Amino acid sequence: MKRILIINGPNLNLLGRREPGIYGSADMESCLAALRLRYQGSVEISYFQSNHEGAIIDKLHEVGFDTELDGIVLNAGAYTHTSLAIADAIAAIKVAVVEVHISNVHSREEIRHRSMISGVCKGVVAGFGLDSYRLGIEAIAAL
Ligand code: DQA
Fold it and tell me: How far apart are CA 84 and CA 92, in angstroms?
């Protein structure tokens, strides 16, 4: 059994209601339910969401040295583009982090092209809608 934590950053609690033309009309609860069903018996998926940079950092510290945790799928939302502190936290911990985005950030405004965290993550998945989370899980499971 693999163990994976999905962390969502700011505004991702509004999935399904937030700019559906960009992020789709499904919410995170149904995405999580579908993932848990799909990986029943093979991957245990836990979930954390916060709109606060420090809370995301605290969570990374809390789980980041857990030898039983196989990886973290992180959608840091807009903090992706701004947060050296989250990048430092990812660099500090032992557990592998895969950066995930629902939208293709590279086809959007220029400010979204830069990621502060890509360089300290194992890799990046972007642009596949909510399926980006599944692809992030697959990437960790294959490590
Ligand atoms: C996002 C892309 C970010 O630029 C944006 O700030 C988000 C969501 C995505 O999943 O596509 O909040 O990370």
Answer: 12
How far does the centroid of ligand 1 lie from the alpha carbon of residue 48, in Å?
16
Q: Over the stretch 61-78, which tens digit does the pLDDT of each residue have?
A: 999 999 999 999 999 999
Answer yes or no: 79 catalytic.
no
Cα distances (Å, whole numbers) of residue 74 to 41, 47, 79, 124: 22, 10, 11, 10
Q: How many CB atoms neighbour CB 53 within 10 A?
A: 17
C-alpha 74 to ligand 1 mean position (Å): 11
pLDDT one-digit tens code per residue, 3-20: 999 999 999 999 999 999
Protein residues whose CB sits closer than 6 Å to any atom of ligand 1: 11, 75, 77-78, 80, 101-103, 105, 112
According to DSSP, the residues that pair with 74 across neighbouring strands are: 7, 99
Average pLDDT over residues 44-55: 98
Residues in the chain: 143
CA distance 5 to 45: 6
Phi, psi dihedral angles at 94 (to 5 degrees): -95, -30
Q: Is 101 a catalytic residue?
A: yes
